[in-house]
Design goal:
By secondary structure, the protein is of the alpha/beta class. The protein folds into four domains: 99 residues, no CATH class; 41 residues, no CATH class; 138 residues; 113 residues, Rossmann fold, CATH 3.40.50. The strands form two sheets. It has a four-stranded parallel β-sheet, sandwiched between helices. The protein has a four-stranded parallel β-sheet with strand order 6-5-7-8. Helix 21 links the parallel strand 7 and strand 8. It is globular and about 70 Å long. 45% of the residues are buried. GO terms for molecular function: 4 iron, 4 sulfur cluster binding; metal ion binding; oxidoreductase activity. Pfam families: CCG (PF02754). Keywords: 4Fe-4S, Iron, Iron-sulfur, Metal-binding, Repeat.
Amino acid sequence: MAQEGSLEPPKRHPIDWENPDFYDEPKLFNEMERVFDICHGCRRCVNLCTAFPRLFDLIDEGSTGELDGVEKTKYWEVADRCYLCDMCFMSKCPYVPPHPWNVDFPHLMLRAKAVKHKKGEVRFRDKLLSSTDTVGKLASIPVVAQTVNAVNKAPAARKLMDNILGIHAERKLPDYDSRNFRPNARINSSHETRDGPLTSGKAAIYSTCYVNYNEPGIGHDLLKILDHNEIPVCLVEKEACCGMPKLELGDLPAVKELKSRNIPPLAKLAKEGYAILTPVPSCTLMYKQELPLMFPRDEDVKAVADAMFDPFEYLMLRNRDGLLKTDFKKPLGKVSYHIPCHLRVQNIGQKTRDLLQLVPDTKVSVVERCSGHDGTWGVKSEYFADSMKIGKPVFRQMAAPGPDYISSDCAIAARHIQQGMGETRALKQHPLTLIRIAYGLD
């Protein structure tokens, strides 16, 4: 993947998003033309998503059969189909930095989305879907939550949402829970800190919008696992959305504003020696990769990135330190486990699989392919069919072993997979829930 003759790994450059040139449309089109022409000559990424097939179709259907036969205004059709999964950068492209051609397709698409956002060419629906904190706070109010959940399941209401908002009528949406995670979290403060050679012996939980408002049980299961392992835990003092939905929208000023709210309390914990655990891979990736690239000179951002862990990454490091309890009481049987894109690109290995395989009488089948949901992308009416098409191989592979459980670190991917699989006897459970079950914890 690196330059020929180089042993350097792929390297991402900082995002120069505060430079006025970043938003210069002619300069953007020039860079898109350069990169698209390289992609046209390679075509290795044709099977990753629908952005590359759309690009190649535009070229093949053009007047010359080359990129010069494509109107630049049609470049937006490619950018709109990119959901910033990062897999082309991490797993396919031979021209990423340090190669002199310096191709970073996802961050080029991010720039395109930022230009479009700055021009005001953003739908109300997209602003709504990316405002996860605001919507979550309103939709999870008692009584309101029951109403929202009922509306989201009513065919007539969903048809209306499809026609007016562009949220596909067939997309299964997550429920909202009026018993939010943060105010109902039970913290055991009696454990003593036990540091290991590789890990801090105390952890702080950044719960994420999804866990706080939609599936608080995931957060409670994480707390039970940490308590069982006698790890002192606290919640992050205050938190807002990590900013990933706004990043995917191209609203970079909103990302900066959220960063200003989140980083101070997180940096304080990082400097106090806490490992910060985030149970949603996209949120972990935001702090580990995107914010450091957007704010490369911010020492607090760097401190948070260094302290941020996927829960299974942290737990498997504790296992290497000889400090993880493996007194599992219940087998899990057959588990079909999907590793989501935003976890794969963290380059930490398959830590969730590794921990699940420590449970006796448990067989884990791993599916390492994009599910097709990808944040809010698969919710949108114009992309729903594509999201289901992308997910077909995943649905088939997840069903093949006849599993007892289907599971993914990304809860929305798991719901998408369950929908794509159709009728199945398998239960959908988050990997943290599976570990809590294996420990025999209530």
